[in-house]
From TrEMBL:
Annotated Pectinesterase inhibitor domain residues: 37-179
Protein keywords: Disulfide bond, Signal
Family to which the UniProt record says this protein belongs: Belongs to the PMEI family.
Keyword Lipid biosynthesis: no
GO MF: pectinesterase inhibitor activity
Leader sequence residues: 1-31
Record CDD domains: PMEI
Naturally occurring in which organism (per UniProt): Quercus lobata
Protein's UniProt name: Pectinesterase inhibitor domain-containing protein
Gene that this polypeptide is encoded by: LOC115984492
Key word Disulfide bond present: yes
Length: 188
């Protein structure tokens, strides 16, 4: 019985002495991800996109942006990208069913495929976000850009809504990619 008590006491002392070191190893990563986003960080992020003003407007349109950290901002941007891509896909489907022009029909069909792929990439990005796999999040959002560019390449002025929707969707996937790069680099 005497041997159990001293070994328990020494184990407890060792554990207590190691706790500060354990918290020091964990805390920096957690604190970097939980720092509230400031307007300077938003400006830095948006300056790396193709349209700074539209980026700021898009991110600030979501009320969560004011009180979130970089990790939360990634979720905001993923949600915005998903909503816009889904809206675009719905409009494409509607136009596809209404057009009698064979060229427009082909364009809408190709764009519908592109947006199906883009939405799949956004959903995958969201899955990667949830497990904090920031490199895969960045890769998925970059792939989303490629899918949207594919639709941009086949779009003509005969499709009045699609160029604007493509630009909006492209910007939002670009925002996700930019934030993912910052998260992967450990910057906030």
């Amino acid at each position: 019985m005497k041997q159990i008590v001293p070994s328990f006491c020494s184990s407890s002392s060792l554990l207590i002495s190691l706790l500060p070191a354990i918290f020091l190893c964990i805390s920096p990563t957690q604190s970097r991800l939980s720092v509230k986003i400031g307007s300077d960080v938003l400006s830095q992020i948006c300056a790396q996109t193709e349209d700074t003003d539209s980026c700021l407007k898009a991110l600030q349109s979501d009320p969560r942006t004011d009180s979130t950290d970089l990790y939360g901002l990634a979720q905001v941007s993923i949600n915005l990208a998903n909503a816009t891509a889904t809206e675009t896909k719905t409009k494409i489907k509607s136009q596809l069913g209404q057009t009698t022009d064979p060229n427009l029909h082909d364009q809408y069909s190709q764009c519908l495929d592109s947006y199906d792929n883009a939405i799949g990439k956004i959903n995958y990005a969201n899955d990667r976000w949830s497990i904090k796999d920031f490199l895969a999040l960045e890769a998925a959002s970059s792939d989303c850009l490629i899918d949207i560019d594919t639709c941009k390449d086949v779009t003509t002025p005969a499709s009045p809504f699609l160029p604007e929707q493509n630009n909006k969707s492209h910007l939002l996937c670009n925002i996700v990619s930019t934030i993912a790069k910052r998260l992967a680099a450990g910057n906030n």
